[in-house]
Amino acid sequence: MPPKKMGVNSKAEAAKARKSATEAERKEKEARDKEEKYWREAEGAKSRAAKKREEESEKRAEAAARKAEARRLAEIEEKELEKSLKKVDKKTTRVAIPVPKVTEAELRRRKEEEQAQILKKAEEDKRKQSRTAKEEEYEKMILVENTNRDDAIIEARSVEEAIAQMSVADSLPVDKHPEKRLKASFKAFEEAELPQLKAEKPGLTHTQYKDMIWKLWKKSPDNPLNQVAEK
């Protein structure tokens, strides 16, 4: 007789099937991981660098796209603003510039100030011309040599020359220090006459004043040479 068939345990079969499926899935995953690992090792560092460059290029492209979009939106907004401004009535934007009003009294005051300035300038010019004429007159008076000389006066161009002439004059009295007396007299005469000449004839040079004082000194009674000549 053939052996008697025993009944099938469904639970055991199900557990066995699950175990087989899990084992198959594990093996499949291991095989897939091995394959990926193989290809990664085969690609090496060069492939990773290329991938990095690709990612950076994508980022730059995205940034450029965002900038372009922002620029496009800004242009649209600017055009809309221009359209809105063109619609505004030009008459409403006009601003009247206030014109300052000048009263009659202000005009009269300005005219008086202008006339005063003109008169002041004319007066200054007149004073300058008068001063120039006086200076020229003084210079002519100084430069013109007096030809009507007194023969009794000893002529000299300086105090030293006058002292030399005093030493050779027959009529001179005996004087041990004639140069000191003559220089002292001339110095006193110069100090007395110079302030008066400056007050009477302002604007001359120091040399011109000295020339005038010397001419006055040659004819002055305070000059010892003239005192000798009179004797």
UniProtKB/TrEMBL annotation:
Keyword annotations from UniProtKB, A to Z: Coiled coil
Region of interest called Disordered, as start-end residue ranges on this chain: 1-68, 105-135
GO biological process, one term: transcription by RNA polymerase II
Keyword match Coiled coil: yes
GO MF entries: transcription coactivator activity
GO cellular component: nucleus
Pfam family, one: Ccdc124
Family, per entry: Belongs to the CCDC124 family.
Protein name: Coiled-coil domain-containing protein
Originating organism: Cynara cardunculus var. scolymus (Globe artichoke)
Species lineage: Eukaryota, Viridiplantae, Streptophyta, Embryophyta, Tracheophyta
